[in-house]
Structure formats: C-alpha cells, structure tokens
C-alpha cells in the first residue's frame, strides 16, 4: 500500500488547510449511512426480542468506522482517476486539502479502532467479516478489479453487500441463511445501480481508462444488462416473503419498489432521455433504502400480531 501512496497523481500542491469537513468527506458519509441502514435491519431481523444495547451500539460504530476507513483508502488509491472525472475532481485528496499520507493515517486509525470495538464489544466473527469487507473493497476492488475487468462492480460488489450479514452476526454471533439472503439482495442490486451512473459518466471513465461496462461493451449493452439485472433483482426481492422471512407488508412494498425500478430500467433501454441514466441511479438508492425500511416495518408489525 505504501507503494501505491508514493506513485501516480499526488493531488494539488496547494497549501490549503484541511478541516474536519475534509476528513468527514473522505469517509463518504452518504454511502456509509446507507450501509449502516442495511446493517441495522440485519440486526433487527436477527431476533424477535429487544436488541442488546452493547452489541447494537458497538456493532454500528465498528461497522461504520471500518466502512469509513475503506472509503478513505478509496480516495487515496483513486486520486489520479478522481482528478480526471467531473464527479470527483473536487475531492479533498485531489485538491490537496488532505495529503495521501494524512488520509492513509486517518484510515488506519479508523480501521484499527473500528476493529477493536467489534472484537471487544461484539464478537470476533463480526470483526473478521467486517475487516474482510474492507479488504475486499479497498484492496481487491479498488486496487485490482476496478482497473482489470468490466465485471469489476459485479465481483467487487460482494464487499458492499456484506453489512446486513455483519449486523446479523453482531447480534447473534452466527451466520444465518436469512442474513445471506439480505446480502444477495444488495449484491444483485449493485450492478444496475452503479452501471446507471457509469452510463451517465461514460466519457469520464473512458478518459480515465477505467474499463467500466459502458466503456468496454457500449452503452446499449449496458442498458440491456441493467434491465436483465433489474428483473433478477425483482425476483430475488420476493424471496424473503417466499421463504417466510417477511410478510405481506414487505411483499406489497417490494412489489411497488421493484415496479418503479423496472420502469426506469425499461425507459433507460427503450426511450432514454439525457437524464434518464442519472434518474435511474438516484431511484436505485431510494429503492434499496425503502426496501430495507419496509423489511423493518414488516418485521415489527408481524411481531405485534
């Protein structure tokens, strides 16, 4: 990793003073909050009783810190790429507000403290799985897969799909098939979510020489892939109901959300407008967020029946 820090684009040489806001931005807070929502739902669905407060707080804090550490490492490793893309050229490391060394130290502190919290106050299984997720995203995906294959987001998406399982194991200390089903939902959701953004930013990825699917296989192929993955996602989203994990509230909510995602995927393929890809990307975030909220509502409503 030290070799990566010393190579390539090193960001602006300006002497801007960094602030806590710059470090906060490095953690990709909106992404981490969505991950923590899925982790919280995993925690709640793992038990019919009240959540043990120590496991709840330590689990959320530890998972959040390790997820944030992975995000910071991503900023450091991708600083050359970020400097060439309209979406990311203002990031703190690129602009020299935070040096690569400072960012990496920040990531190390977040990672070590986060792991310790999980190891001491939840359980080793959760600590190890969360650390593996960090390695999967920050090293395997960011350092290798992103630059090596157009299937980068498919393979690397497993790391980002882990939080529901991490939340589940933080409470129970065990891996459960229902928890793996939640992971599967996020795993299949990730490609159509990210490919929609990749279509919108296809020229940026081409300029940065990143082999995203629209760059290597074309926009139309990517649109077809998004549509097919959205159909697969809809089928998988019904599995919690079919498996007895969730009830009719979830079934109704998932069906409506899947219909919305399908609408955008079909429009993107068959009648796309200039902003359709970005609208599809934004709706995909709403889809996942509300899907897990509905799971939570369904879980507690069923318990009161």
Features:
305 residues, mainly alpha, Tetracycline Repressor, domain 2, flat
Write structural notes for this entry.
The protein is an all-alpha fold. The chain has 2 domains: 1-174, Tetracycline Repressor, domain 2 (Orthogonal Bundle), CATH 1.10.357; 176-305. It is built from 17 helices and no strands. It has helices at 2-6, 20-26, 29-45, 53-77, 79-82, 92-95, 100-121, 124-148, 152-160, 163-172, 177-200, 202-207, 213-217, 219-237, 239-242, 248-270, 276-304. Helix 3 (29-45) packs antiparallel against helix 4 (53-77) and helix 10 runs antiparallel to helix 11 (177-200). Residues 1-15 have low confidence and may be disordered.
Question: TL;DR?
Answer:
The chain is mostly helical and 305 residues long. The protein is 78% helix and 0% strand.
Indicate how many domains the architecture comprises. 2
CATH topology of the largest domain, anyone? Tetracycline Repressor, domain 2
What gross morphology would you assign?
flat
How many individual helices? 17
Instruction: Tell me the quaternary state.
Output: single chain
Low-confidence stretches: 1-15
In total, how many beta strands?
0
Helix content: over 70%
Order of helices and strands: HHHHHHHHHHHHHHHHH
What gyration radius follows from the Cα positions, in whole Å? 20 Å
What is the level-2 CATH architecture name of the largest domain? Orthogonal Bundle
Average pLDDT, rounded to a whole number, is 93
CATH superfamily of the largest domain: UbiA prenyltransferase
Cα separation of the termini: 53 Å
Percentage of β-strand residues: under 5%
- Specify the biggest β-sheet: none
Reading off the top of the CATH hierarchy, the class of the largest domain is best stated as Mainly Alpha
Helices and strands: which structural class? mainly alpha
